[in-house]
Amino acid sequence: MTKEKEPLAPIHLHLELVSDYMSDEEQVMLKRYGESSTGTSISRDILVPFDMTLHALHYTIQKLFGWQNSHLRRFILSEEDYHRVTNGTVRGWSDLVGTLFQPPSEGEHDLFWDDDYDSGNFNAWLRKKYTGPYYFRGQLEQYEQAREDIETLLDLFPDLEIRESFSDFMDRKAYDREAEPKNIGRSALIDMTLEQMNNSLFMESGTENLLEKLLVDELLGYEDEHSGRDGIPVVNELFYEYDFGDGWRVRITRRMSFNELISGRLVTVQEIQDARMQVIRKHKPVCIVIEGLSVMDDVGGLSGFARLLKEIYQGESREESADARRWAKGMGWNDKKVRPEKML
């Protein structure tokens, strides 16, 4: 049974910074010094305005986890949801460009229309970005322009050679060192599978990126909610990826209740009520639970952060520990405890 949404009510989101590639020692360091309960994740629970866009959520996430908005980012669906809504075909994907997915050219030209920080207080600049009223002025996310962009791409390739997959090529090369990549057929781009297109055509921005003008409320449903509207399918989780070199990945889910947080004594009923009122009154998100320290840019992902914590707290010398801490501070890191309501 699906819970009815309360009109204009703040939305409860659980944001979990996750990593699947941490050694046992790194997990111990993240637990011991990074205040992570699991050793593999850092999380935040927040309330956001009912009309928050993914674009504004991007800036919110930057502040919540300690980043400086200095690398590429994107919102994507889970692999399962992506294949479900596209049917794994170019036609299925292209039909959703402009309503769900970004057009092919956006990542190259139009995505960073709002990144206008020059100088001054960076946190104040971020706060303006995630405080309503929300708007999106990127031109290529306008439906008509997005459709024109995807139609231009499809028209460019009425007949295209289909290349074999890289894995198939490597399998052949294992037996024949002289093997070269080969073509396995021809097709109009619109009639290909997404796998065939990705094997045959270089797409700099990929096909998975979600429109940032989308409202969180329109796209992200509760655990058992699957219906959509206006051509936008409802999904139960989103992923925010940041700095593709460091490989940061935040799993975003929508929570139906606060019972788990209350029973775990992580937040009180009064604190939740106060936060809800603040979201409505100030038209901005409010953090209600912090689990784990903030991280920083250019540290090598969650594994690198755990290794840095080891250097800071278990360095072979005082000088090594001091140097590591000095570098972290220079990257904007703050290891002081912050009350959730002060985070944003």
Automatic annotation (TrEMBL):
Coiled coil: none annotated. Residues 39-84 form the Plasmid pRiA4b Orf3-like domain. This is PRiA4b ORF-3-like protein. It comes from Alkalibacterium thalassium.
